[in-house]
Automatic annotation (TrEMBL), chain A:
Record keyword Membrane present: yes
Keywords: Cell membrane, Membrane, Transmembrane, Transmembrane helix, Transport
Domain ABC transmembrane type-1 positions: 95-305
Domain of life: Bacteria
Membrane topology term: Multi-pass membrane protein
Regions that span the bilayer: 12-30, 97-119, 140-162, 182-201, 240-263, 283-304
PANTHER family cross-referenced by the UniProt entry: DIPEPTIDE TRANSPORT SYSTEM PERMEASE PROTEIN DPPB-RELATED (PTHR43163), PEPTIDE ABC TRANSPORTER PERMEASE PROTEIN (PTHR43163:SF3)
Organism annotation: Glaciihabitans tibetensis
A Pfam family assignment: BPD_transp_1
Entry keyword annotation includes Hydrolase: no
Family: Belongs to the binding-protein-dependent transport system permease family.
Protein name: Peptide/nickel transport system permease protein
TrEMBL record, chain B:
Signal peptide: 1-24
Sorted UniProt keywords: Signal, Transport
Official protein name in the record: Peptide/nickel transport system substrate-binding protein
Taxonomic source organism: Glaciihabitans tibetensis
Keyword presence, Signal: yes
Gene3D superfamilies: Dipeptide-binding Protein, Domain 1, Dipeptide-binding Protein, Domain 3, Periplasmic binding protein-like II
InterPro entries given in the database record: Peptide/Ni-bd, SBP_5, SBP_5_dom
GO molecular function (one): peptide transmembrane transporter activity
Gene Ontology biological-process entries: peptide transport
GO cellular component, one term: ATP-binding cassette (ABC) transporter complex
Homology family: Belongs to the bacterial solute-binding protein 5 family.
Any Pfam family the entry gives: SBP_bac_5
Domain Solute-binding protein family residue range list: 78-404
Length: 320, 497
């Protein structure tokens, strides 16, 4: 296990370094001049020069990369080209929206899909079992922002139950107020995420139900529910845990997308604006943090899988 | 079956919990109902107006948090603000300003002439990004003989000097960190700025003039126009500063709960020719294009009953406006004749560099279909705003393009032959210079009217239409500005019934 942990950590570090270089290089390959975002249609030649100097776009690419990397090593994400404000604190502030949104949505999606997935598998002959399967098929095909727009027009504009957009100015000072603003976004993300999760859990449950070990347990006299609970859950959990990591990462990306629909001051709206303005330090900062989050989720999911499944734990070479 | 009942119960419990949160929040949010909530699409980048703060910081801060020696009122006239009076020397080169008494900054420091000097110098500094920098090139020295007096000497006459001063914020010379904080003299101080979300202003109790009407004003920022309209529909905001999408208006125009104000803007939609290159170096060809486009139909198809037709670069709020819409009338037969006399009887083909954001793509399609009627083929080349600056503005590598020009009093750019559109008429350049060197505003107005007439006669560009400036507000709110010249939005008189 320790050998595996070390290997898996090395893998994490290497993929992280590769991702950093890729982010930097791909951004520089994009056509466009970041200093243009600072100009107006009456800019004079001196102002154009001043703008170029401010963004440092006139410096060699290698020098820019080394500066950025050097700062990163000191946990400094640099300063925005456009606003000249430090990137790190802004990301931290915006994570206070994106992280709760991601985690709560994921938890809700997980609870909903566990229930729905098991019901859809065990009651696949009933109308509600078929209905759940149908809805989960549909849910996978629907884009998350569209669900957001739909929910806003029904629950905010139509029924006036919840705010259509925005987040309290005092952040989480009043948690009830903050949660109220997050309710529709959470429902949106959770709804879409639970669709694909339900499908996984349904098929994992079906696999377990058709398995030989379950039949043997039944033959030895245990009841159906008892057999499913004692033997089925642990076996069925292995494939589900392995996709939970990916699903959590997808939830994070879904949260980033719905932020602009709901006008939430999260990471997603920050990224969209930064891309529009070619604000490289902001783009790099957001991508850096999101890559880190996704890689760490994958890392934790792999470890968790080994803890649950003794077969993987015992084989040293058992990583992919 | 028992299990299912448990699931249903769990679901119900969750719903009730959420509903409980929701109703709890309802009561708490009504406490803060005294604040005026404003919705806008223009969030400041930072809080400095010469370090790339952009349109958003002007909207939120100009006249509200920061004040100038003069102010540009909502109807376009210039009035003294922090300057109590001024005297101008006989030769028009020396301006002596006396500052208002008893003005203090939000930090408590009293305003002195040193602050005024430092504020002007900051705009002129080498790394200044201020869009107004070039209008102060005539300044030669700034002196401060005493705390209440500022003497500015100009190298040459500049009749717009006082007007230009209305753009310079007077900032405490000792203030630091102006990108995230402020120290101005206005009726409001900065409350809290949550980036990506909102910026609040709080009444400054020691304000030297008439106190602001409302304790707190909040600018809420949106990136999506639909989300902005939804917020107004659901009463989360009271006012939208500038509606940019005509489609959104229908939900408010026939609704007694809202007031739609049709104000004056200074934003012109322009079909810009590169006047240096063939075939647009020929006046008749340019006039042919102008006469071939039904601008009235274009404006109507985009904005319905809103917006104004213009025949030159000058909007009605500029002092030198005159109606020149008949200088290049819509007349397809005339257009064909002009095309022939311009040496292009069989028409020609050109590329129209079109910025990818609204309304330019729609305008480009319209222009293309209109010009097809006189045998001119338009190839639409869609480019990003970033490419526009690189290709069209800096490299001047284009035949024709579309662009909106937002500022007032900007007809003077036709006097600069190096400007991107390359209009080069020495007579016009002379008039522009003479206008700036005028001794009186009447003389300035007279010269600039000549400029208008000449550029219209030359069809230097096609001025398609003037954007409307539409403010939508709840009907129980009043006292807001309707014209929003240069993105200003004075909030100190806004009240709720």
């Amino acid at each position: 296990m320790i050998v595996y942990l070390l290997r898996r950590s090395a893998f994490l570090l290497v993929s992280f370094l590769i991702a950093m270089v890729a982010i930097f290089v791909l951004l520089r390959l994009l056509p466009g001049d970041p200093s243009n975002a600072l100009l107006s249609v009456t800019a004079t030649p001196e102002q154009i020069a001043a703008a170029q100097a401010q963004v440092g776009a006139d410096r060699p690419v290698l020098e820019q990369f080394l500066t950025w990397f050097g700062q990163l090593a000191q946990f400094d994400l640099g300063e925005s080209f456009i606003s000249s404000l430090p990137v790190g604190p802004e990301i931290a502030a915006r994570l206070s929206v994106t992280i709760p949104l991601t985690l709560i949505s994921f938890a809700v999606a997980l609870v909903v899909s566990l229930v729905a997935g098991v019901v859809a598998a065990t009651r696949s002959d009933r109308w509600y079992g078929i209905l759940i399967s149908g809805f989960s098929q549909l849910g996978v095909a629907v884009p998350v922002f569209w669900v957001g727009i739909l929910l806003v027009s029904v629950f905010a504009v139509g029924l006036r139950w919840l705010p259509s957009s925005g987040f309290p100015r005092d952040d989480w000072a009043d948690p009830a107020d903050a949660l109220r603003s997050l309710t529709l976004p959470i429902v949106t993300v959770a709804l879409v995420m639970s669709a694909s999760l339900t499908r996984y859990i349904r098929s994992a449950t079906l696999d377990v139900m058709g398995s030989d070990y379950l039949r043997s347990a039944r033959a030895q006299g245990s009841g159906y529910s008892e057999a499913l609970w004692r033997h089925g859950v642990r076996n069925g959990a292995v494939p589900v845990i392995s996709i939970l990591g990916i699903e959590l990462a997808t939830t994070f990306l879904g949260a980033v997308v719905v932020e602009s629909v709901f006008g939430l001051p999260g990471l997603g709206s920050m990224l969209l604006r930064a891309i529009e303005q070619h604000d490289y330090p902001n783009i790099q900062g957001v991508l850096f943090v999101s890559t880190l989050v996704v890689l760490i989720i994958g890392f934790v999911a792999d470890i968790a899988q080994r803890l649950v499944d003794p077969r993987l734990r015992l084989s040293i070479s058992g990583n992919r | 079956m028992k299990k299912h009942t448990a699931f249903v119960a769990l679901g119900l419990a969750t719903t009730l919990l959420l509903a409980g949160c929701a109703s709890g929040a309802d009561s708490s949010s009504s406490e803060g109902a005294s604040a005026i909530e404003i919705g806008s699409l223009y969030e400041p980048q930072n809080l400095s107006n010469f370090g790339g703060g952009g349109q958003g910081v002007t909207e939120a801060f100009n006249g509200n948090v920061y004040e100038g020696l003069y102010k540009l009122t909502d109807d376009g006239s210039v009035e003294p603000l922090l300057a109590e009076s001024e005297t101008v020397s006989e030769d028009g080169l020396t301006y002596t300003f006396t500052l208002h008494d008893g003005v203090s900054f939000h930090s408590g420091k009293a305003l002195t002439s040193a602050d005024v000097k430092a504020s002007i110098e900051a705009v002129l500094s080498e790394d200044s990004q201020s869009a107004r920098k070039s209008s102060f090139s005539a300044i030669s020295t700034i002196e401060t003989p005493d705390d209440a007096t500022v003497v500015v000497t100009l190298a040459e006459r500049s009749i717009s000097f006082i007007y230009n001063l209305s753009y310079i914020w007077i900032i405490n010379a000792d203030a630091t960190d102006l990108e995230t904080t402020e120290d101005g003299t206005g009726p409001y101080t900065l409350g809290e700025w949550t980036r990506g979300s909102s910026l609040s202003l709080e009444r400054f109790d020691d304000y030297w003039g008439e106190a602001a009407s409302t304790d707190e004003v909040v600018f809420n920022y949106f990136t999506d126009a639909t989300a902005l309209s939804n917020a107004l529909l659901t009463d989360e905001i009271d006012i939208v500063t500038s509606v940019q999408s005509p489609d959104a208006l229908t939900q408010f125009t026939d609704n007694a709960d809202y007031v739609v104000s049709d104000g004056e803007s200074t934003t012109k939609e322009i079909l810009v020719f590169n006047d240096r290159v063939a075939p647009f170096d020929n006046v008749d060809v340019r006039k042919a294009i102008y006469s071939a486009i039904d601008t009235e139909k274009l404006l109507n198809s985009i904005w319905g009953d809103y917006g104004t037709l213009i025949g030159s670069m000058v909007p009605p709020t500029d002092p030198w406006y005159e109606d020149l819409t008949q200088e290049n009338p819509y007349d397809v037969e005339l257009a064909k004749q002009l095309l022939a006399s311009g040496g292009q009887p069989d028409g020609f083909e050109f590329t129209l560099d079109t910025p990818s954001y609204d309304p330019h793509p729609v305008v480009a399609e319209f222009v293309k279909s209109e010009l097809a009627k006189i045998g001119v083929t338009v190839n639409i080349n869609t480019i990003s705003s970033d490419e526009w600056y690189t290709k069209v503005y800096k490299a001047q590598d284009f035949t024709a393009t579309l662009q909106e020009h937002v500022n007032d009093r900007d007809v003077v750019w036709y006097g600069n032959p190096d400007f991107y559109w390359g209009y080069n008429n020495p007579q016009v350049a002379t008039w522009v210079d003479e206008a700036e060197a005028s001794a009186t505003t009447d003389e300035q107005t007279e010269k600039l009217k000549l400029v208008n007439q000449q550029i219209a006669a030359d069809a230097a560009s096609v001025w398609l239409y003037l954007y409307p400036q539409i403010v939508v507000a709840s009907s129980d709110v009043s006292g807001y500005p309707v014209n929003g010249l240069n993105s200003q939005f004075f909030v100190y008189d806004i009240v709720t019934e």
